[in-house]
Amino acid sequence: MPLTRRTLVLTALAAALPASMVRAADLDYSELRTDGAWQSLALQGARGRLIGRACVASDERDGLLTIDMLDPGNYALGLNVTLSEYSARRWRSRRDLLPVALRVDRGTIFRGTAERSAEERTLFYSFRGSFGSRFLRELRAGRVLRLQVSLNGEDIVIRFPLNGSAKALDRAAAIVERYAPKKTPQPAPRTKPAPKTQPRQTEESETILI
Is 47 helix (H, G, I), strand (E, B) or coil? Predict the structure, then answer.
């Protein structure tokens, strides 16, 4: 059964991805908003850390993609897939690592690794590291995200619509920035002027990296 808007919210509440360690009970409902196919909300993470989440459901295989803004410029990517009762009974591994690939429209192919775990009938994929700001820029401007991942021993492709992604991602980032602790500017330390030196001659055999 495809995820409806209601089940999308409930899944976002229940998701406990290792990357962000979100606790559903700490959700601030007042921050929930829908933009196109996407939703954005505020979650309380480990040690009181506030997280801005942008998420979108796929009509294929009951998949839910989550992007957690941890702090300005830092995000974690996750995927939840609902298993059939038959597949859930066959699941034996507690945790494993597997390759993944993502592509927006016909753009860059982003390759990485995800840690996979299961809880009852839900598979959680926690992506290792980040695909950088380029991935987010392509998400904002694209139409469809295709994610290739292993499920039940075979590679599958799950598609996610991107209408509303720009507003949801911007709002998730704004939630984190709004509640981030303010840094008190520190006075610059006094330094003595450096002594004047002559430029060093570079030998022909030396390699310069810039």
Answer: helix
Tell me how long the chain is: 210
User: Are the CB atoms for 127 and 78 separated by under 8 Å?
Assistant: yes
User: How far apart (Å, rounded) are the C-alpha atoms in residues 32 and 41?
Assistant: 4
Contact 165/141 with Cβ under 8 angstroms? Answer: no
Query: Could you read off the pLDDT of 11-25 as tens digits, one per residue?
Result: 444 444 433 334 444
**Residues 108-158 pLDDT 10s:** 999 999 998 888 788 889 998 778 999 999 999 999 999 998 776 778 899
Cα 83–18–152 angle (5° rounding)? 25
- Tokens 């996407």 correspond to what residue? 38
Instruction: Say how far apart CA 124 and CA 83 lie, in whole Å.
Output: 11
The values of phi and psi at residue 135, to 5°, are -60, -45
Q: What's at 196, amino acid-wise?
A: K
User: What whole-number distance in Å separates Cα of residue 82 and Cα of residue 1?
Assistant: 10
The tokens for 10 are 């409930």
Cβ pair 68, 80 in contact under 8 A: no
Residue linked to tokens 């981030």: 180
pTM value is: 0.72
Both tokens of residue 63?
A: 């998949």
